[in-house]
Each structure stands twice: as structure tokens, then as C-alpha cells.
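for the writeup, i need someone to sanity check this before i put it in the appendix. the sequnce is what the collaborator sent (i think, or maybe the updated version? ugh). structure was predicted straight from it, no edits. if anything looks off just tell me and ill rerun, i have time this weekend
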Amino acid sequence: MYEMNITLNLPFDAALEKVKETLMANHLGVVSDVDVQAIFKNKMDKDIPAYHIYGACNPKLADRVINAEPNAGTLLPCNFIMREEGDKTVVSFMNPVPVLGLSQAEEVHAVAAEAKDMIEKVIEQLQA
């Protein structure tokens, strides 16, 4: 499976703060934010519920990937999305194992397993 997801019983902005805090507590930072809702509105005049694509990164893991295979940086960062669904928020994390599995480097595969463990820990904490 390419992703792992949960639904938080929180409105979008509150869920975003909780997710960011949990990521930071687990040595993952949000390094990018694509506001799909705003892009759709601006480019197509289409209204959709809040939907963001975020990039999460642990610089030490990213360094290991890039050192092992410099072009594997195209597979970084680990993306996750947050989307508004009524008064709840769906959070879907990319599973780094199949994505980084595209690399032939064993070190990249090892990083993928470590990153997946970190994301699973974040998910467990968010569900608590």
C-alpha cells in the first residue's frame, strides 16, 4: 500500500497544529506546503474543501538517502496530505517503503524502513 491514513475528529486548523506538533516530537518537520484548495480556486475557480499536500522530512535520513544515491532526492520528502471532510480531517501519509524501494541502494531501503517506523509512531500518537 502506498499510504497510511487516519481520520481525526478535529477541524482542519486544529488537526494541522496537532499533526505538526506530533511530527516535530518525532524528529520530522514540515518543509513544504501545497495549498491545493487555493490553487484550484485560483486556476480553475473551483471550490473544494481544505486540502493540503505537505512534505515531511528528517534531515539526517534525507542526508543518508542523498549520500547513498544522489538522484534519489527526487523521491523526497515523505509527503502527506490533510483534507477536510466535514468537521473531521483525514491525514494520509505516504508509505516511504514502496516509494524509496524504487532505488537500488540498500542504504536507501534501510532509510525507508526507519522512516516508515517513524510515521507509524506519529500515527499511533495521533490516534491516542
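The chain has one domain: 3-127. The chain has a mean pLDDT of 97.
thx in advance!!
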